[in-house]
Amino acid sequence: MIINNILTSWYSVNKRDLPWRRTTNPYFIWLSEIILQQTKIEQGLPYYEAFVTKYPSVFDLANASESEVLKLWQGLGYYSRARNLHASAKYIVAELDGVFPNNYKDLLKLKGVGDYTASAIASFCFDEVCAVVDGNVYRVLSRYFGIDTPINTSQGNKEFKALAQKLISPKNPGEFNQAIMEFGARQCKPSNPDCTVCPLQDGCMALQKNSISDLPVKLKSLKPKTKHFNFIVFIFNEGETIIEKREGKGIWQNLYQFPLIETETSTSFDTMHSLLEKHELIPSSNYDLTLYNEEAIVHKLSHQHLHTKFWIVAIDSLASKGVSVDIIKDYPVPVLLSNFIEEFNF
């Protein structure tokens, strides 16, 4: 098909020189794909380089502790990716003798690997004819063919996957997949693409109908919830604090944080004093309370906005053993807390 030849020709001239494009090693391709999920290349590249340096093989990654992996991932967000990455490495080493799955079907068995990632690895590393469909591909196909089916629906997923599978080159599937994704990232951009130099302009339905800005169609998601987080930063025993591991299935699972009190609205000093009087860690009411940030820090996640205050509690002793403030930077924490730790400097 003509679009296939045009895209691969464009890619041969315009592709970026990226480290994961210089290898067909499935471990490195897998690392890059997991890191780049919901992450721009500019942000993900330093993390990729850090991971391949510290964990040059799947055995090295499997032998690391989850805490070490989360610490290296710190700041990248969507921490379930890191937990799944580590779990899959352990599975590959323990169950597959360190040999990476070499086909789409078996790649899907890895935690955190869905259709897109399995298709990418299978085509890039093993020449399997599996079309990738990511945000860039949705954009190129919806505009070129004039498709207004919402991309965040099951119908849209099926329709675009089938179309991409029809277009993919059976001779060089990996190159075609790379080409269409790169084309969407660099030429058919989300906003204000330069259609005057686009090699697909003659056949582009969106350009002909002046609907570039309308495609792809995506149904609006629910409005993010607002939450109010109050982190209690204890200072006691001449340089100790309390830091605890988050449990459960919520955000920041297995990361560390200061003790947290969640409230329905923004918290005043009087309210915080009342809450602290009931706190299980505080043996008496003899403490000094200060508010680090007068204005709440708004930390935006995909489904919730966290309005956050850091309360400093200076107290002689607590009903719990603390950790030295000198080592809290060793713990994997959410970027929200990492920024506070750097600024507060204890």
Automatic annotation (TrEMBL):
Domain HhH-GPD: 35-186
EC number: 3.2.2.31
Catalytic activity of the protein: Hydrolyzes free adenine bases from 7,8-dihydro-8-oxoguanine:adenine mismatched double-stranded DNA, leaving an apurinic site
UniProt-recorded Gene Ontology molecular function terms: 4 iron, 4 sulfur cluster binding; 8-oxo-7,8-dihydroguanine DNA N-glycosylase activity; adenine/guanine mispair binding; metal ion binding; oxidized purine DNA binding; purine-specific mismatch base pair DNA N-glycosylase activity
Pfam families (UniProt xref): HHH, HhH-GPD, NUDIX_4
Note on how the cofactor is bound: Binds 1 [4Fe-4S] cluster.
GO biological process: base-excision repair; mismatch repair
Required co-factors: [4Fe-4S] cluster
Keywords tagged on the record: 4Fe-4S, DNA damage, DNA repair, Glycosidase, Hydrolase, Iron, Iron-sulfur, Metal-binding
Lipid biosynthesis among keywords: no
Family: Belongs to the Nth/MutY family.
PANTHER family documented for this protein: ADENINE DNA GLYCOSYLASE (PTHR42944:SF1)
Protein's job: Adenine glycosylase active on G-A mispairs. MutY also corrects error-prone DNA synthesis past GO lesions which are due to the oxidatively damaged form of guanine: 7,8-dihydro-8-oxoguanine (8-oxo-dGTP).
Protein known as: Adenine DNA glycosylase
The organism of origin for this protein: Oceanihabitans sediminis
